[in-house]
Design a protein that fits this description.
By secondary structure, this protein is of the alpha+beta class. It has one domain: 3-Layer(aba) Sandwich (NADH Oxidase), CATH 3.40.109.10. It is built from seven helices and four strands. The chain has a four-stranded antiparallel β-sheet with strand order 1-2-4-3, sandwiched between helices. α1 crosses α5, α2 crosses α5 and α3 runs antiparallel to α6. The longest helix has 25 residues. The protein is globular, with a radius of gyration of 18 Å. The site of flavin mononucleotide has 11 residues, from β3.
Length: 202
């Protein structure tokens, strides 16, 4: 597959077949992810594949809890939260066969010292995000679909998801990605902004 085809046909997939993803394909996804640029060459990322129903259920329930707490703080009624829940992360998190948690190790540093804490954190998050994009494009080539689940980062639950993954507190969850065979063919979503609106030459 041409890179351009992968870029222009990728779209967030929210409905999946029950079919398992072959181990070889999981390997190919991660091999693509770790070819991404990585700030200071640190490669301080870790990909946790939540595959068992038990682990996925735990993550799913944590997200449900995180969402309720988050939106209640903004004064949203339970009725509205239920509606949002459906829209944002859907039934059983789109029934995906895999959730891929992309973590980065905050203790692996290039610049040491408090002064660089934020910079180092941002660099690591950016590196992990690039790895995620590689993974998502590779998924298109392999006939798989993905969706970024920002809801896994609600305050308070990120740590708990980390502990489902069996990781210590040096690990930070950058993103949780659902992956699997799409239930139906999805058309790429349109963009509201075009070239002229998002580019400026100086
Ligand atoms: C950082 C980030 C967080 C996201 N979080 C969610 C989410 O929690 N639930 C969801 O269904 N989609 C989520 N998405 C997917 C976006 O909604 C989606 O990319 C956007 O609507 C554009 O659609 P497309 O990916 O099909 O082009 C997230 C995307 C990004 C980049």
């Amino acid at each position: 597959m041409e890179l351009g085809d992968a870029i222009f046909t990728r779209t967030s997939v929210r409905y999946y077949q029950e079919r398992e993803v072959e181990e070889e394909k999981i390997k190919e996804l991660i091999e693509a992810a770790i070819r991404a640029p990585t700030a200071s060459g640190l490669e301080n990322w870790l990909f946790v594949i939540f595959k068992s129903s038990e682990a996925k259920k735990k993550v799913y329930e944590l997200i449900a809890k995180g969402m309720i707490e988050y939106y209640q703080e903004f004064g949203l009624s339970m009725e509205k939260i239920e509606k949002l829940k459906k829209r944002i992360y859907g039934e059983k998190m789109y029934r995906a066969p895999l959730y891929i948690g992309v973590f980065m190790n905050k203790n692996v540093r290039f610049l040491k010292g408090e002064k660089f804490d934020l910079l180092e954190f941002v660099w690591s998050v950016e590196s992990a995000a690039m790895a995620i994009q590689n993974l998502m494009l590779k998924a298109v080539e392999l006939g798989l679909g993905t969706c970024y689940m920002g809801v896994a980062n609600f305050e308070g639950i990120e740590e708990e998801i980390r502990s489902v993954a069996g990781l210590g507190e040096e690990w930070y969850l950058v993103g949780l990605i659902t992956a699997g065979y799409p239930l139906r063919e999805e058309k790429p979503r349109k963009r509201r902004k075009d070239f002229e609106e998002v580019v400026t030459f100086v």
